[in-house]
Every structure is written in C-alpha cells, then in structure tokens.
Amino acid sequence: MAEVTTANIDKKILEYIMKTTITGPDLLNNSRLNKGTAFTDSERDTFALHGLLPSHVGSLEEQRLRRRNWLTSLATPIEKYRFIRDAIFRTAMRRCSIH
C-alpha cells in the first residue's frame, strides 16, 4: 500500500508524495500512481520508466489542457460523448487491473 504524506501547500493546492516500491510497467498500469509524461527524468530513473514513456517530460496540467483542447475540437456531440466515454472506460479498466 502506498503511503501518502503532505509535501507542501502552495496557493491552496495540496500536493502529495506517494511512496511505493512498484516500478516499470506495473507502475504505469496503476491508475493511482501513473502520471504519464509528467514523470520527471529523476523519477523515470528511480522507477525504471525510461523507454516505457515518450521522451517528452510534461506536466499534469499540460496533459489536462491537451485532452481539453482535443475535446473542444470535436465537432459533434456524439464525437464528444465517445471521447469522454472512452476516457472513462480506460480509467475503469486500469482500476480493475489493480490487485
């Protein structure tokens, strides 16, 4: 089980440090721990993630904005519905695979 501690409070944003021994693909398959391209180079070294993620290091905010921009670029309500449905499905499938 990952241990959660508060790291700092800045501008009313609570940031957590998750301590885990999970590495590599197992970490990426854990929806509660996977930050995608937001893993720093140091974190990629620590958790053996090099080669498993795109080389670009970005932030969670960049990921959120990229998805939001994609959603708003879709022309019809059915396309938007499918985009949201697929995102929810992917999240649910990741959570079901956690043991």
Helix coverage percent: 40-55%
Oligomer: single chain
Tell me the CATH architecture: Up-down Bundle
- The helix count comes to 4
Return the CATH topology: Hemocyanin, N-terminal domain
Instruction: Give the overall shape.
Output: globular
The order of strands across the largest sheet is 1-2
Largest sheet: 2 strands, antiparallel
Question: In percent, how much strand structure appears in the residues?
Answer: 15-25%
| Cα gyration radius (Å) | 16 Å
Task: Summarize the structure in words.
The radius of gyration is 16 Å and the shape is globular. The protein has a single domain, classed as Up-down Bundle (Hemocyanin, N-terminal domain), CATH 1.20.1370. The protein is α+β, with helices and mostly antiparallel strands. It has helices at residues 24-28, 41-46, 60-73, 77-96, and strands at residues 3-10, 13-19.
Which descriptors apply to this entry?
globular; 99 residues; two-stranded antiparallel sheet; Hemocyanin, N-terminal domain; alpha+beta; 15% strand
Would you summarize the structure shown here?
With 99 residues, this protein is α+β, with helices and mostly antiparallel strands.
Question: Layout of helices and strands, plus pairs?
Answer:
Layout: E1 3-10, E2 13-19, H1 24-28, H2 41-46, H3 60-73, H4 77-96
Antiparallel strand pairs: 1-2
